[in-house]
């Protein structure tokens, strides 16, 4: 879970991006990203384990290592989930949620661990947690305010029991762009009961430096018509979803296909 699986080109591209954001040289940025982020958690709560896995997958795309088996002796930051003491002397980041709000803080919260929360919402919390951990690694050089604690209003996301229990019929939908935001869309979508047809359209191809985290579901759980669609571990509500990856620019459907819905991630490609 925590092994550093980025190749040399991806490591360099991460360093270039960080260097540009901070106004530092690439060598310095690469040194900053050689950090280790152990995650310590109370494994008796399954939601703690799930959150830990998601944070680890995010940070492992950027840092040297992240996860429960990352070396605490080399820690630049330690992420804690649940009633568990730290394993390192590094700065700590506590992540907790009571189901209505999530708290990401450098100080130990009153409520520890995560409770009564949908898995797609935990992915959102994982994203903010990974960002906060990275902020601790690189310091206060980013030109953005540093909120501590960071409180997320989970209710504002609208993931209500009615939404969770309702099957979502996409009918025929095009996802225009499978970049960072498109991957996030798919990553969260797999935790909902979804059916229909989703055409994932992107003109870009996978290269050594732009490998993305796997975003869909195991091939056995989803009918994929073309090779190249990403697969990932985990339960799949989307076994009724027919996903069709297409390597091309999006110019709309053919007349034969008729009416459709367009989901367009707002990233550099779709703009």
Task: Quote the distance from N terminus to C terminus.
Answer: 34 Å
CATH class of the largest domain equals Alpha Beta
Radius of gyration: 19 Å
Number of helices: 6
Order of helices and strands: HHEHEEEEEHEHEHEEEE
Quantity of strands, as a count: 12
Helical content class: 25-40%
Mean pLDDT: 80
Basic shape: globular
- Counting structural domains, the number is 2
Provide an overview of this structure.
By secondary structure, the protein is of the alpha/beta class. It has 2 domains: 150 residues, Rossmann fold; 97 residues, no CATH class. It is 26% helix and 22% strand. It is built from 6 helices and 12 strands. Helix 1 crosses helix 2 and helix 3 crosses helix 4. The longest helix is centred in the middle third of the chain and has 20 residues. The protein is globular and about 50 Å long. About 9% of the residues have low confidence.
Summarize the structure.
By secondary structure, this protein is α/β, with parallel strands linked by helices. The chain is built from 6 helices and 12 strands. The protein folds into 2 domains: 150 residues, Rossmann fold; 97 residues, no CATH class.
List keywords for this structure.
2 domains, 12 strands, alpha/beta, 271 residues, 6 helices, globular, Rossmann fold, single chain
Architecture blueprint of SSEs:
Elements: H1 8-22, H2 26-32, E1 36-41, H3 46-59, E2 65-67, E3 78-81, E4 92-97, E5 101-105, E6 113-114, H4 119-138, E7 150-153, H5 161-165, E8 168-176, H6 180-189, E9 194-201, E10 223-224, E11 240-246, E12 261-263
Helix pairs in contact: 1-2, 3-4
């Amino acid at each position: 879970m925590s092994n550093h699986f980025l190749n040399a080109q991806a490591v360099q591209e991460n360093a270039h991006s960080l260097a540009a954001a901070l106004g530092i040289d690439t060598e310095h940025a690469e040194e900053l990203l050689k950090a280790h982020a152990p995650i310590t958690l109370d494994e008796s709560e399954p939601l703690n384990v799930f959150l830990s896995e998601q944070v680890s997958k995010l940070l492992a795309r950027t840092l040297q290592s992240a996860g429960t088996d990352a070396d605490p002796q080399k820690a630049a930051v330690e992420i804690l989930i649940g009633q568990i003491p730290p394993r390192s002397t590094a700065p700590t980041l506590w992540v907790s949620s009571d189901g209505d709000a999530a708290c990401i803080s450098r100080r130990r919260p009153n409520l520890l661990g995560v409770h009564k929360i949908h898995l797609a919402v935990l992915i959102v919390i994982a994203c903010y947690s990974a960002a906060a951990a990275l902020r601790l690694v690189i310091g206060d050089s980013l030109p953005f305010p540093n909120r501590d604690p960071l409180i997320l209003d989970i209710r504002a996301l609208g993931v209500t029991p009615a939404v969770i229990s309702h099957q979502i019929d996409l009918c025929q939908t095009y996802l225009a762009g499978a970049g960072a935001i498109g991957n996030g869309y798919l990553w969260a979508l797999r935790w909902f009961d979804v059916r229909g047809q989703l055409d994932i359209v992107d003109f870009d191809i996978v290269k050594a430096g732009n490998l993305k985290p796997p975003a869909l579901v195991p091939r056995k759980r989803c009918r994929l018509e073309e090779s190249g669609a990403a697969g990932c571990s985990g339960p799949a509500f989307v076994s009724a979803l027919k996903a069709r990856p297409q390597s091309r620019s999006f110019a709309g459907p053919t007349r034969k296909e008729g009416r459709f819905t367009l989901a367009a991630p707002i990233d550099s490609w779709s703009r």
